[in-house]
Design goal:
Elements: H1 2-23, H2 26-34, H3 39-64, H4 66-86, H5 90-118, H6 124-175, H7 190-199, H8 201-231, H9 236-264, H10 266-283, H11 292-320, H12 326-333, H13 335-353, H14 360-376
Helix pairs in contact: 1-5, 1-6, 2-5, 3-4, 3-5, 3-13, 4-5, 4-6, 6-9, 7-8, 8-11, 8-13, 8-14, 9-11, 10-11, 10-14
Length: 382
C-alpha cells in the first residue's frame, strides 16, 4: 500500500509539471493561430467535449480499468503535446489542443480514483494534504523554468519538455499499479445530483463557492498571460518569475489552514479568502506600470485568497457530504469544465463592451464579491 502511495505521489508530481508548464501558455500560443477573439470559443468547445468525456468515463472504466485508462490518457496527452510543438496550421493546433484539454482533465479524475482507494485505511485528510502540497510544488517549479525555456526555444521547447514528462507518466501507468482493484464505477445520476443539492442548501452554497473559485482560476489562466505579455509587455522569463511567486501560497497555506479549520470553522476563513482575493483582483486594472515585484505581490495576494478558499471549500463540502453521495461528489469534482464553458462565454461579449482589456479583472473581482456574500450566509458545521 505504501509503495502504491509513493507511485501516485510520483505520478501526480510528474503529471503536474507539464500541465503547469503549458496551462498559462496555451491561450497565448493559440492566439497566434486563431486570434484573441476566438480563444474563449476554443476553451468552450474543449470543455463541452470534456463534460461529454466525464459522462462516458464510468462505462470506459468498467470495461478497461483505471490503470489502462490512465495509461491511454497519458499517451494521448503525450501525442497532443508533440503535435502542438510541431504544428504549422490552425487545424492541427486546435485538434491537438482539444485532445490535450480533454485528456488532461480526465486523467485528473483517474488519479483521484487511485487516491480514494489508497487512502481508505489511513487518514484521508493527511494523505490528500500531502498529495495537494506535492501537486502545488510541481506548479511552482514549472513556472520557475517555463519563461527561460520559451526565451531559448519558443513555445516548441515548452511543449517538447512537457512531452518528456508525459513519457515518464505513461511508463509509470504501464509498469506499476497492477494490483489495483477497480471498484464498480457508477454512472453519474444528474437527476439524483440536482435533487441532492436542491434539498441541501449548504451543499448548494459551498458548491457555488467552489465553482466561483474554479471560475477565477479559468479566467486567470486564459486572460492573465495575454494581459501581462501583450498589453504590459512583460517577457516570458519575467512572467515566469511573477507566476512562480504567485503560486507560492498554494504550497504554504493548504496544510496549516486545513488543520485550523477544524478549530475555528470554515466560514470565517472563506470570508477572509474572498475578501483578499477580490481586493487584489480589483487592483489589477489600476496598475498600468511594468514593475515586476509589484505585479508579483498583487498576484501573490490573489492566490493567497484563492488558496484559503480552496482548502476551506473542500473541507466544508466533505464535512456535509459522505461517500455514499457519489453523484454529488462527482458533480463537485468536475465543475472545472463547466467553469471553462461559462468563463469565456462571459468574457467574449465583455471584451466587446468594455473600453480596455484590463476591465476583465473588474468583472472577475465583482464575481469574487458574490462569493463573499454567499460565504457570509454560510453556516459552520462541526
Amino acid at each position: 500500500m505504501k509503495t502504491n502511495r509513493k507511485i501516485i505521489y510520483l505520478a501526480g508530481f510528474l503529471f503536474s509539471i507539464p500541465i503547469a508548464l503549458v496551462s498559462y501558455l496555451n491561450s497565448s500560443f493559440l492566439k497566434t493561430f486563431v486570434g484573441e477573439d476566438y480563444i474563449g470559443a476554443l476553451y468552450i468547445i474543449a470543455s463541452i467535449l470534456t463534460i461529454g468525456g466525464f459522462l462516458k468515463m464510468p462505462k470506459v472504466l468498467n470495461r478497461l480499468g483505471n490503470q489502462a485508462v490512465s495509461f491511454w490518457l497519458s499517451f494521448s496527452i503525450l501525442i497532443s503535446l508533440i503535435l502542438l510543438a510541431f504544428c504549422h496550421n490552425e487545424f492541427t493546433a486546435i485538434f491537438a489542443f482539444f485532445i490535450y484539454f480533454v485528456a488532461s482533465n480526465l486523467i485528473i479524475a483517474s488519479l483521484d480514483i487511485f487516491i480514494e482507494d489508497f487512502s481508505k485505511s489511513s487518514s484521508v485528510g493527511k494523505f490528500r494534504g500531502i498529495y495537494l502540497t506535492i501537486i502545488n510544488s510541481a506548479w511552482v517549479i514549472a513556472q520557475m523554468v517555463s519563461g527561460s525555456i520559451i526565451n531559448k526555444s519558443s513555445f516548441r521547447g515548452v511543449y517538447l519538455f512537457s512531452a518528456f514528462f508525459m513519457i515518464l507518466v505513461a511508463i509509470i501507468f504501464i509498469l506499476f499499479l497492477h494490483n489495483f482493484k477497480d471498484p464498480k464505477y457508477k454512472k453519474v445520476s444528474i437527476k439524483k445530483t440536482l435533487l441532492f443539492f436542491t434539498e441541501n442548501i449548504h451543499a448548494s452554497k459551498i458548491y457555488f463557492i467552489n465553482f466561483i473559485l474554479k471560475f477565477f482560476y479559468v479566467w486567470m489562466i486564459i486572460y492573465s498571460p495575454i494581459y501581462l505579455n501583450e498589453y504590459l509587455h512583460f517577457s516570458w522569463s519575467e512572467i515566469g518569475i511573477v507566476f512562480t511567486i504567485m503560486l507560492l501560497p498554494f504550497v504554504l497555506v493548504d496544510y496549516p489552514l486545513g488543520k485550523m479549520s477544524d478549530k475555528i470553522g470554515e466560514k470565517k476563513m472563506l470570508i477572509w479568502g474572498f475578501f483578499i482575493a477580490s481586493f487584489f483582483t480589483l487592483l489589477i486594472p489600476l496598475i498600468s506600470g511594468k514593475e515586476l515585484w509589484l505585479w508579483a505581490l498583487i498576484l501573490f495576494g490573489t492566490r493567497t485568497g484563492a488558496g484559503i478558499i480552496e482548502i476551506m471549500s473542500e473541507s466544508y463540502f466533505f464535512k456535509i457530504v459522505n461517500a455514499e453521495n457519489d453523484s454529488a461528489i462527482s458533480f463537485f469534482r468536475n465543475n472545472y469544465p463547466l467553469a471553462y464553458v461559462l468563463a469565456p462565454l462571459l468574457a467574449i461579449p465583455t471584451l466587446l463592451l468594455v473600453p480596455s482589456f484590463s476591465y476583465l479583472f473588474y468583472i472577475l473581482g465583482a464575481i469574487l464579491l458574490i462569493g463573499l456574500l454567499i460565504s457570509l450566509r454560510l453556516q459552520d458545521v462541526k
